[in-house]
Specification:
Helix content is 34%, strand content 17%. It starts with 14 loop residues before the first helix and ends in a 5-residue tail after the last helix.
């Protein structure tokens, strides 16, 4: 590495230049090896941890369907107009029976109970509250492990939103990241529900569109708040209720799938993962500092060597003034033909034998 202008081509056969070229080639090789190592996601599991196992159907290709997130709104009435709608038939049992005669738990839901539930409406309507609290009470009266064993993996988000009525009342399991968890006031009900919690979470295939979950219990220590930055990893096993209409943060009315669950299963990060993450961060910072100090030391050494070389005899011999074209005008040129002619003229004449002397005489 030279920081001054050199008039001639440097010699790369010196030991110093060969060592520098070897270091440069070795540094480029290390960079390519590091790039190849960093391109593999599995090499970063020590820092981020292994990805969670998703349900089989969530890993399949999502069908190309358009989702309607709009909320059904009733048309405005003109003056002197009124709207009369028939009262929906509600057939919700007053008590919840979860065990059969053989002692097994009954996790099925009678479709007649959810007959009055409609999709894409804003909030929960009055005639839907009875069915909602019935599902909440039934989920709360069945052990969590029984619910999880009886549930099927949730269908892809697109399929659930486009075929909502098909999955109403089905018990399903979905994994995601919790974004919001708050408590809600409990309406008067005949099932003994005294606590109600609302959660909003994102699944792997829902993108920026959330799910909503209502549950009666929470695991101990789960983070709560309106905006959870760490977004804990959770699993929801519950009954699908409807496409729930809500006002989004952007001021638009949108819909989200609503699940009724017993509780939220929370996967808190273990202490070993936390320690490994903090240790990995310290390791990365230390490695960065070592590389920075090494590069700074190499640049400093190159600068010192260049300064010493600038005052050496070799540098003075190398630094020669360039010969300009003006200085070549006074140089006399010689034609090779003229030189040959002069040499021919200056050469002594050669004596050739007479042909008569060599010929024999005739007798």
């Amino acid at each position: 590495m030279r920081f001054h202008k050199r008039s001639t081509t440097p010699s790369y056969f010196s030991r110093r230049d060969q060592v520098r070229l070897f270091r440069l080639v070795a540094a480029i090789g290390v960079i390519f090896i590091a790039m190849h190592f960093a391109s593999k996601p599995s090499n970063w599991y020590w820092l981020t941890g292994r990805p969670e196992n998703e349900a089989t159907n969530q890993q399949t290709d999502i069908p190309n369907r358009e989702i309607d997130f709009s909320v059904k709104q009733e048309s405005e009435l003109k003056p002197d107009e009124f709207r009369s709608e028939p009262k929906p038939e509600i057939n919700v049992p007053e008590t919840v029976k979860t065990q059969l005669k053989n002692g097994e738990y009954d996790v099925q839901i009678d479709p007649k109970i959810l007959k009055s539930v409609s999709d894409s409406t804003l909030g929960i309507r009055n005639h839907e509250a009875g069915a909602l609290y019935y599902l909440l009470a039934k989920a709360a009266s069945i052990p969590q492990n029984v619910l999880e064993q009886s549930a099927e993996p949730a269908p892809p988000f697109v399929v659930l939103m486009t075929e909502s009525s098909k999955y109403r009342g089905q018990l399903m399991t979905v994994k995601g990241r919790l974004k919001k968890l708050t408590s809600l006031p409990v309406s008067k009900n005949s099932y003994g529900i005294q606590s109600l919690y609302e959660g909003w979470f994102f699944s792997k295939d829902s993108g920026t569109h959330p799910w909503r979950v209502l549950c009666a219990q929470l695991p101990e220590g789960i983070p709560r708040g309106d905006n959870l930055k760490e977004m804990p990893s959770i699993q929801i096993t519950g009954y699908y209720f409807k496409k729930y209409g809500y006002p989004s943060a952007a001021g638009k009315l949108q819909t989200a799938p609503l699940l009724i669950a017993r509780q939220i299963r929370w996967f808190p990060p273990s202490k070993t993962q936390t320690r490994s993450s903090s240790g990995a961060a310290k390791y990365m910072i230390s490695l960065f500092l070592i590389i920075s100090i090494t590069l700074a030391f190499m640049v400093w050494r190159f600068s010192i060597n260049d300064q010493k070389f600038a005052y050496s005899k070799t540098a003075k011999l190398i630094q020669q003034s360039d010969i300009s074209l003006e200085s070549l005008k006074d140089i006399k040129t010689v034609d090779i033909k003229d030189v040959l002619k002069q040499m021919e003229q200056q050469a002594p004449p050669s004596s050739e034998p007479s042909p008569d002397k060599d010929e024999p005489k005739n007798s």
